[in-house]
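Recall that a protein's primary structure is simply its ordered list of amino acids. Everything else, from secondary elements to tertiary packing, is in principle encoded there. The following example makes that idea concrete.
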Amino acid sequence: MAGIYIHIPFCVRKCLYCDFVSGEGTVKDMEMYVDSLVNEINNTYIEECIDSVFVGGGTPSILSGKLMEKIFETLNNKFDFDRNCEITIEANPGTIDENKLESYLKCGINRLSIGLQSADDKELAKLGRIHNYEQFLESYSLAKNKGFTNINIDLMSALPGQTIESYKDTIDKVLGLNPAHISAYSLIIEEGTFFYDKYNIDNEKLPAEERLPSEETEREMYYYTKEALAKKGYFRYEISNYSKPGFECRHNLKYWNRENYYGFGVCAASFVNNRRYRNISDTKKYISLKGNPDEVREEVTHLTQKEAMEEFMFLGLRKINGVSKEKFKNEFAKDISEVYGNVIEKYKKINLIDENDEYILLTDKGINVSNIVMSEFLLD
């Protein structure tokens, strides 16, 4: 089965750390964008049954309920959906209400991903978030009362001015809410963002309340996340993702497993039968082209076997269970040891990689330096 990703590029205000294709838009902009999105969907053929949909952004919950219903009416009329399809929408506190949640249920949306990031209002303000913790609690409670049981909460660590005490407080508060899923990422300063310009200097020259935490503090936050979530019954199934049993994000697993997914909307990426392509990143141009697939799709790459094997390893090793030896052989007609035996043995000797009869996986120690280990799986 395949997945579908829908990109909604609009938000109330762009966060200071965000490098996604997103920005403010008028009601008219959103209406024209959805018209183009619907046109792209209607002019795309998908043979497979769909068992996951993910609506991301931007802030998808900024759209009216009627516009969201229009998108899903088109999807349902065009494609074949599995009866147990996982359908996720990203939502920010302060942008969802009772009417929108009712529209989501009407659309078949059964999973919410709410961007909290921090339970500390001062930290949220430094990120440029539009909400405070109390507004998050209101949104979360509203969703629970409407019957949403599969809710993810997004968290970030290593924030400006963040201390280990304030981070522990955020984790503990979120655990008290007992969500089905938690995504916990460390802040990465991306080029082209406000934060990149601000923090592209010596950290020590900044006021104490604006400084980024030290590597030692960031590492302490990482260990606290892992230990505190495990104690509460959350299974870590990917480097930054934790869930209650049975609530792993099916759509995101498609990315890490290199399964087919189709992207719709500006800058949306697709992976179909070992071919990657991406839509244009200019929202106004996307609207002017009315989402015509022949005109908005670019950067088409047919992966070689070498590139596919590399991807198989550095995407698959993000999963805590690792990569399947059998799947590697089925896909590439080679034993994994034939291609990567030297690298695997090298890192097994220093306890960064483990191996059993079925899988190759990173150890806890290996996860700590995962970028270094994964880079070794690039073939010359």
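The chain has 16 helices and 15 strands. Residues 3 and 269 are 12 Å apart (CA to CA).
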